[in-house]
Amino acid sequence: MCGIVGAVAQRDVAEILLEGLHRLEYRGYDSAGIAINHQQGIQRLRRLGKVQALGDALNETPLSGGTGIAHTRWATHGEPSEINAHPHVSSRIAVVHNGIIENHEKLRQKLKGLGFEFASQTDTEVIAHLVAHHLGQGDNLLGAVQQAVTELEGAYGTVIMDAQQPEKLIVARSGSPLVIGVGVGEHFIASDQQALLNVTRRFMFLEEGDVAEITRREVKVFAKDGTGVERSVIESNVTHDASDKGEYRHYMMKEIFEQPTAIINTLENRIVGNTILCEAFGAGAGDTFATIEHVQIIACGTSYHAGMVARYWLEAMAGVSCNVEIASEFRYRKSFVRPNSLIVTLSQSGETADTLAALRLAKEMGYTASLSICNVPGSSLVRESDLAFMTRAGAEIGVASTKAFTTQLAGLLLFCGAIGKSKGVLNEWAEGALVQSLQRLPDAVNQALALNDSIASLAEDFAEKHHALFLGRGDQYPIAMEGALKLKEISYIHAEAYAAGELKHGPLALIDADMPTIVVAPNNELLEKLKSNIEEVRARGGHLYVFADDEAELVASEGITLLRVPHVDEILAPIVYTIPLQLLSYYVAIIKGTDVDQPRNLAKSVTVE
Ligand code: M6R
User: Given this model, what pLDDT does residue 512 score?
Assistant: First the structure.
């Protein structure tokens, strides 16, 4: 999704801004632009397509100056084009913006009435004209921005530059994250700290409604009501080289292979002996968990699938009822809060607009407490939740979520154990058994990764297919959904998932020789039922690709291609069976030649509705 970088320094900042944009490329975008404040005024370059195209333009027409803003755009209002790319300008003002201004049409009419001419179809351009308008009324730049934001409805993270005041930037945040990078005699701004890790590791996170004035020497932050506020500076522990692909051709592959280490990191210091530490979820988490009778999980996409797996675990292991809902549905329907309910949000980025809005709504609705399971420290979800558990997957750059998912599942297993024991439902023996299973998890994932070569060959069968069906039962049903999501998102093959028991209620009609059916079949109490479903498909001329436990009595035969997955503890099977499905989608995408790390139309962090 859109990315912002800005800088106020004594040195030329164009290269810093360009590097920042490169670091944000993983978020997904369609065009890029930069504006530098120079003695001759604001100079701007914009290009449709990759940041590299902007870099080439900068090589041809270098821009010098110590204050600048830059942006990668993911189109919402107006097609991807150079005209619609940011920064947008209005006389002396240049603006970059993430988010959506919902009342842009009304403001556009008002500003046209005031004589402003619009060059683009974007909602963002209203911000530039609105600030220019207030500046014309005699406000200083800070005052003009403070005035302008009172008229904006929707979400924004925005940075404003004035040709006549080249020593400063004004930034404003509401619903779209912004972080200020603190340097020595220079300051930076970005929508994601990842953009600035090559220039600083010290960050100040702006809060909702904040407006800040940034100069080389100073950052002055004002809350929504205009009063000056202090925001603390935090030393980042995000590693700089996370954006390095190393020996891998794609970030996605690197991230798939990082999963054993990411899981080890996620479990580290969260277990002592045979005991799960409730404090891993925040101070006093154990006492809160003891009172909880119901868990409401909210998430989107892959994180939603993790929540769906957790529902099977929570109800079986911890004795609490659990609902799981997609955030964009939860936030727009009237729902009831059961007594003693915990709201749990799951998110890799911690900035997903729908999930964040759902959390805010839940807090108003009177949930007992909120917990966020998240991969990005300091993100909005983490800061706004009562309790937080950080998955330690490290930066995930590929748009297709892989290690964030499996570390969420590892965190959710710890959560089930923690809540179960706090409520006295999970006894010491069962807690110990869970801990021992978790300790075997990194090895089990490593063994699943060893299937890499077999899956690379298997992928060839899918290259010419247009559809695929994924089947699973019980806690493998969400894994089938995750497998289908991975395949469609990076190979563009239409894929859907069904709970295998649902086959005969409709989807069986789709089965023919051109519809490959992928089945996840660990050796559990549902295996016999699943075998019947496999037969239902085979009897109708379908070809099945069965990922089966090597202890299951399943054999390859006509219509069935079998891929043996090492036997693992039943509780770990959803995590382990995810790995071959990730690899399958990766290799199919490679054969199809799609953009694996930045699939078309998608963004890594979905910060708009
Ligand atoms: O950052 P989040 O976990 O909140 O993101 C939610 C979804 O946008 C995300 O999981 C998406 O579905 C992935 N790209 C799928 O691989």
Answer: 92
Question: Given the CA of residue 605, which atom of ligand 1 is nearest to it?
Answer: 1
Tokens linked to 473: 């039962």
Q: Which residues of 322-358 are buried (b: 16+ CB within 10 A; e: fewer)?
A: bebbbbbebbeeeeeeeeebbbbbbbbbbbbbbbbbb
CA-angle at 106, arms to 100 and 108, nearest 5°: 80
One-letter amino acid of 505: H
pLDDT tens for each residue of 552-582? 778 888 899 999 999 999 999 999 999 999 9
Residue 263 CB partners (closer than 8 Å, separation 6+): 406, 407, 410, 441, 442, 445, 575
Ligand 1 pocket test, candidate residues 27, 192, 346, 401, most atoms within 8 A of CB: 401
Q: How far is the CA of 405 from the centre of ligand 1 (A)?
A: 9
Q: What DSSP string runs through 500-555? A: GGGGGGTGGGG-STTS-EEEEE-SSTTHHHHHHHHHHHHTTT--EEEEEETTS---
Task: Give the Cβ contact number of residue 64 at 10 Å.
Answer: 13
Tens-place pLDDT, residues 19-74: 999 998 877 789 999 999 987 799 999 999 999 999 999 999 999 999 999 999 98
User: Buried b vs exposed e over 142-165: b needs ≥16 C-beta within 10 Å?
Assistant: bbbbbbbbebbebbbbbbbbbbeb
Q: What's the gap in Å between 607 CA and the centre of ligand 1?
A: 11
> pTM of the entire structure?
0.78
Token readout for 320 is: 């609490």
State the catalytic residues: 2, 604
Cα 406 to its chain centre, rounded Å, is: 14
Say whether 392 sits in a helix, a strand or coil: coil
| 188 three-state secondary structure | strand
Q: Where are the alpha helices (DSSP H) in 292-427?
A: 301-313, 327-330, 353-365, 380-384, 403-422
State the closest ligand 1 atom to the C-alpha of 299, by its place in the atom list counted from 1: 4
Give the pLDDT band of residue 332 (cuts 50, 70, 90).
very high
Q: Tokens 């748009």, residue? A: 399
Query: Cα dihedral sign for 545, 548, 553, 556?
Result: positive
Q: Is 201 helix (H, G, I), strand (E, B) or coil?
A: coil
How many CB atoms neighbour CB 362 within 10 A? Answer: 23
Q: How far apart are CA 559 and CA 544, in angstroms?
A: 6
How far out from the chain centre does Cα 312 lie? 23
Residue of 329, 348, 359, 486 best suited for mutating to test ligand 1, as the one with most atoms within 8 Å of CB: 348
The continuous run of DSSP H or E covering 112 comes out as helix 104-113
Question: What's the CA-to-centroid distance between 268 and ligand 1, angstroms?
Answer: 24
Give residues with Cβ within 8 angstroms of 12, minimum separation 6.
64, 65, 66
CB 429 within 8 A of CB 317: no
Render pLDDT for 87-135 as a digit per residue (tens, 0 to 9): 999 999 999 999 989 999 999 999 999 999 999 999 999 999 999 999 9
Which amino acids bring their CB within 6 angstroms of ligand 1?
300-303, 347-349, 352, 355, 399-401, 485, 489, 605-606
- Listed in sequence order, the residues at least 6 apart from 251 whose beta carbon sits closer than 8 Å to its beta carbon are 26, 245, 396, 397, 398, 597
**ω before 516 within 30° of 0 (cis)?**
no
Of ligand 1's listed atoms, the one at least distance from the Cα of 300 is: 6
Report the nearest-CA residue for atom 12 of ligand 1: 301
